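Student: I would love a firmer grasp of how sequence relates to backbone shape in proteins. Thank you; the sequence and its tokens follow:
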Amino acid sequence: MKAGLRDRLPGKVFLRDVTLRDGLQSEDVRLETGDKVRLVEKILAAGVRELEVASFVSPKRVPAMADAEALWRDLPRPCGVRYSALVLNARGLERAARAGVEEVGIFVSASEAHSRRNSGRSVSQALAEARTMIREGKRAGIRVRAGVMNAFGCHLEKEPIRSEAVMALVRDLSSEGPAEIVLADTSGIGHPAQIAEMVEACRKITGGLRLCLHLHDASGWAFANLLAALEAGVDTFDAALAGLGGCPFLPGAAGNLSAERVARFCQALGIQTGLDPSALDEASALLKGLLTAARARETL
């Protein structure tokens, strides 16, 4: 008997909420640390157990992340919840370690143009530093996720990014022994066939290493790409409330997977997530209210 769609999908999917990091980093207003904590509490109440909550980056370049240390100090600490932060360079890793961060994401862009905008380094320079950072993070007892930004292309580039170049980055990063590999469609221009091909190629390199996809929706393909990834066996995804997000150094990269919609999408397919879509709606409503209030304060 021919297998149906549901037979080809994972039985359980894990969502990492990136609202407080990716979702807020490009917003034109800053939320107070206490408001961010309220938002975290709402997200936890919806069943989310993995959250990326901050970037340890220059507050001059990304003002929304200026309170990274204060937020980390004030986060609620229920059992079974894992928080993480993004770090772009050795200085950021040092700050994260001093703050007591238990997990970090370390990324390299596959796009030369984006790499220079995002980190001021070429791809090869960023890769060399990332490999060193992975080793240093592990020595410090920090769980490390390693990833490739613009893994499916970048609209800053005149030519497509070769899949072989992306897989070379995956191979180099995975050789350092991270706990997880992330493929990020930072520009939001990937398509389903590309997703399936890249996931298959990545699996051949990383084996049983946990694989996560970070999908943006700039081209409207995010949910088609989500389904393609599910069919390819991926069970871990980043998502944000209300689909908020983007990259401050990559115009047009707006829109993460919506956590609420992903939860309902998986529910319709019979995939367990452990999430309460209605509670995610409440968290999303709180987020919108907090952003509206912050904008109102800034106009006074």
